[in-house]
Amino acid sequence: MISEHASPLAALGGVDAGGQNAHVAALAAELARQGHDVRVYTRRDDPDVPETVTVRGFEVVHVPAGPPAVLPKDDLLPHMAAFAEWMAADWRATGMPDVAHAHFWMSGLAAVTAGRACDVPVVQTYHALGAVKRRHQGTADTSPEHRTSYERQLGRVVDRVIVQCHDEERELTGMGVPRERMTLVPSGVDLDLFRPDGPAAPRGGRPRILTVGRLVERKGYAELIRALAGVPDAELVVVGGPPAEQLADDPYARRLRDLARECGVGHRVTFTGAVGVADMPRWYRSADVLAATPWYEPFGLTPLEAMACGVPVVATAVGGLTDTVVDGVTGELVPPRDPKALAAVLRRLLTDDVRRVSYGAAALDRARLVYGWPTIAGRLADVYAETAHAFADTTDVREAVA
Ligand code: UDP
């Protein structure tokens, strides 16, 4: 696997976890458990880490490409050629993989470059698409200029594209990636960690709305705070962002606090700061409902984690959330950026115990039946096997051309 900016070690270590880190870590660990040899290549962003680290049965290889320091991911493109070259040399030295699975578009560029040089087939998961980001963030989007054309090209040259939800399939088809090159396999959830039974974070008497994620504008926290004004008595707990002790200095957290005060709900909003992965289930279990209200969301792990803890989800009807949340069965979908509609749904749900309990039970069933990592990793392993076989079938042609 190639995950240029998102190391699985960050997810396993604790607080600095986004969706891609968590996805790669869980997928690699489960594939290893199922008997596969898994190696994850990620960029070295710290001079002191060893070149190879073994964790949960798989290896993480730190690739020296660019300075050994944390760089914004939008600055990594110039280092992908060095990344590819180093990885190809490593494959030659240690043995060719049967398949390379790239996560995010820049990993795809490195994987295709090394794959072409070494005759290794490439499977691509985008995790996020530049065109969607640009549509929602406009000039605030700092992605490299040609990201969307690279993503389109990748879709045409890799051996298989994994899409994680129907919305992504629609987007890619619209960009000109042929649908028959895609296989839909969603992300998974760790059902051993995220389960309904176990300790819960302390709470008072107010109904609790929980929201979880990196503190970035597109996650829709402002709309949620505005909605809270229309949900009497309820409290909103925001999990994520910088560590608690740095929250006071975080400009966005400060803006959200000011907004809460302006809306008259300052006393009903709590920011916990970053929480370690192992501690996340306690927060989900403490909630009456999880609100996931982004403007857009390529996949969205937090609703799945809440569902696996038996918690109903109110989500905006965007991206992957329209696949995971079954409206009226495991929770409810609302239009994005509409605090009024959000308030109405939350108000009704928090006063309807029967509906909440039945949504929670259905959410748990759905998480367990569809999204467990053993199932999802098994489906991806089937894709790897099919891809490797199809690629091997073309060996004669490739040799003739060479
Ligand atoms: N997360 C965490 N600690 C926090 C906040 C979030 O471990 O303080 C985890 C959360 O449990 C989830 C991931 O970060 O696994 C967020 O993934 P999601 O797909 O929801 O959002 P992304 O960060 O990829 O935009």
From TrEMBL:
It holds the Pfam family Glycos_transf_1. The keyword Signal does not apply. Residues 203-363 form the Glycosyl transferase family domain. One of its GO terms (biological process) is carbohydrate derivative biosynthetic process. Keywords: Glycosyltransferase, Transferase. Gene3D superfamilies: Glycogen Phosphorylase B. The keyword Transferase applies. Residues 18-192 form the Glycosyltransferase subfamily 4-like N-terminal domain. GO terms for molecular function: hexosyltransferase activity. PANTHER family: SULFOQUINOVOSYL TRANSFERASE SQD2 (PTHR45947:SF3). This is Glycosyltransferase involved in cell wall biosynthesis. It comes from Catenuloplanes atrovinosus. The lineage of its organism: Bacteria, Bacillati, Actinomycetota, Actinomycetes, Micromonosporales.
